[in-house]
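Reviewers asked in the last cycle whether our approach scales beyond single polypeptides. To address this, we selected a multi-component target totalling 830 residues and predicted its structure end to end. The input consisted of the following lines:
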Amino acid sequence: MSLFEGLRFSGGDTPIHRLDPRAKFVLTASIFTAAVLYFHLLPLLIIFLIQLPIVAAAKVWRGWLRTLRGGLYIAVLILVTNLISFYFYKGRVFTLEMVEYSLSMTLRFIVLVASFSLFFLTTSPDRLSLALEKLHIPYEFTFAFITAIRFVPVLAEEAQSIIDAQRARGLELERGGLLRRVRNYIPILLPLIVNSIRRSLELAEAMESRAFGAVRERTNLYELEMGGLDYVILMLSIALMAIAIYIRVFHPNLGAFFPSV
Amino acid sequence: MPPIVEVEGVTYTYPNAEEPALRGVTLTVDEGEFILLTGPSGCGKTTLCRCLNGLIPHFYSGEMEGEVRVLGLSTREHPPSELARYVGLIFQNPDNQIFSLTVEKEVAFGLENLGVERGEMRRRVDWALEVVGLSHLRHRLTNELSGGEKQRLAIASILAMRPRVIVLDEPTSFLDPKAAEHLFEILDLLNREYGMTIILIEHRVDLAVRYVDRVVVMDGGLVIVDAPPREAFTSPKTRAVGVAVPRVLELSERLMRRGIPLKRLPLTPQELLEELQGRLRGDGGWSGGEVKVEGAEPIIEVIDVSYTYPNGVKALDGINLRINRGEFVAIMGENGAGKTTLVKHFIGLLKPTEGRVLVDGIDTSQVTVASLARKVGLVFQNPDDQLFAESVEEEIAFALRNFGYSEDVVAKRVDWALHLLDIERYRDSSPFTLSGGERKRVALASVLAWDPEVVVLDEPTIGQDYAQKERLRHFLMQLRSQGKTTIIVTHDVEFVAECEPRVILMAEGRILADGPARRVLSDVEALEKASITPPEMVRVLRKLSPYGVPCDILDVEEAAKVIAGRFRG
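The resulting structure, written as structure tokens, was:
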């Protein structure tokens, strides 16, 4: 679960947090593109390292590292699967190229997770929704998105209370065979569903009372305007993407330890 | 000036309901009034609130007769989203009315929906946060707020829309006493300084009566009393439906019966002091009766226990506690003091990070939750967190089957529990169709069914009306007289004052005080540290303490006796 926890915005106010979500999105997209383009260790390592100063500037080391740690199991899985499949594919031999390729695939995954994490850790969903509105995505959609994020912790807390309450009535989740174990979850899921239905009714009432849908043209407390730093980041991101594509197309083996792969 | 709210002969039936929830309600409210709306659960209070901002008939279909007008606007012709500019509605559960992730964004939500221009919006958001005292938390995530802060945020969010009328439906139910008092002060400010009209549904009448101009009592979908507080609470009609009455009024009536003439019946400690000033003798001694020592055989022992949650929050810090067989204990403290964390240790749901918890001599870290649950029955605050079965009967049988009782024992136990909680008539009903109070009793029955040696009730009085609390209190007394060890976790001071158990006062994961209720609840300094307000009787007696009246009396009759003994005319 820590993989997802690291994706949750938890406040903060640094220049990185204040960046326009659109500029940050282009940055993330360019890192994403670059990572997908390359198969080699060195370029992927560079792409990874590029993110470090941004993480430092945003002061989100803890959350970021937690995401990476959460992704570790999957990373190891990718590494091992790659190595094993190569081992058999190439006729039961290990070569350094295979090791580099497998490591690269693993690193690519880590880079992708890291860039996603950086985006979500430093982008308040409120501002993200504003960016989505600016991109003419219907408000109902962004509202649903925000509400979903808002209620994740509430639901988690509620699920814990339900589990505690049923365990206090002698429910043992780990008891019995597979079918029995699945059935054990009914006393947990049912109250959770019923409570959610009840809650959605209350929420709808509260929305009405707050004039939801009163006027067609909603306004917004925040303004989203691209500032100087936003343009700089935007330019750098586009440049990064351009360079990555250029090198990949015209010098495909640059930076590869083993060009033959 | 025409009245700001006019309700004329409103009868309303919810869709699929057989009986109308309102039967011809008529009520007028003038601008600037502060009204307390009260009545037993199911009397139609909440339904009436829903009529005031057009939720009925726009959001709820069903049949509505009669007319509701707010500032002259008919609620039939204007939907809630339009009426929101004039009437703000605040609900019981703070969590279910917050949509945004950050505080100031939440306050802006209604204004954004109304299309208010940004500069004006900024001004109104800042003003609303200022009024409720949340300016310093404007960038905070809404999830990180305490219950009291969340409810103040809900008020700010409504305030920002600058309504003329604010309607609050039991806004303090989930709050601890300090937070509730703070909320009342804000409402008072809005009423006096900004001239807002306030309609409040509330069970904490002792507090409410200090501020309100008028009391409206409902029963069975009708307004049965509509008068200033003094008349309303002394009316036989009010007494007959069984709603809470301010304790000072109750005390004053008992004083009158003891032959002490009072010019007007006081409603608050201050008013009582004004009546009695100079009329009491300041001499003579009185010592409170000693509370008897309970059986000395321990059933729960907590030894040097600390507990830290996985997220690093230290919830318990060096707790030492011994609860004897047959004791009746109340664990008190504000939300977040560690009360629930502590009782979860009694049943092994949490294992101490440091120290040991022994239940009947067995270390809880050595055994499963299920085996501890047989000895310690824990009833959670919200019955909806556990009800899931098709019928009440099945619901009660659930735990018994988990514990492996044979079917004939299960049947016998279910019968016994249904009888004990007086819910036999619901045997075949689905728990989901029952009312809140009934669901609470089913949840209680489903735990008492296996007759655990210790019964722990987490916040049993939340959302309960006067009659339900009285019933609960009698039930607890019954358990006590049967010698069952009973533990309640609560911040309901008045309820504890009436039960007079042993009180354990907690704050920040530590025990601040531990002793008989009358001693702990009159220890104002300890209460202050625990952010608990003293019970109304203690407040009254403290006002009279210059006359040498002892402060450690919780019972109204006893207080009346002591005060009467000092009366000199």
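The CA atoms of residues 159 and 192 of chain A lie 7 Å apart. We regard this as preliminary and will revisit it once experimental data from Aim 1 are available.
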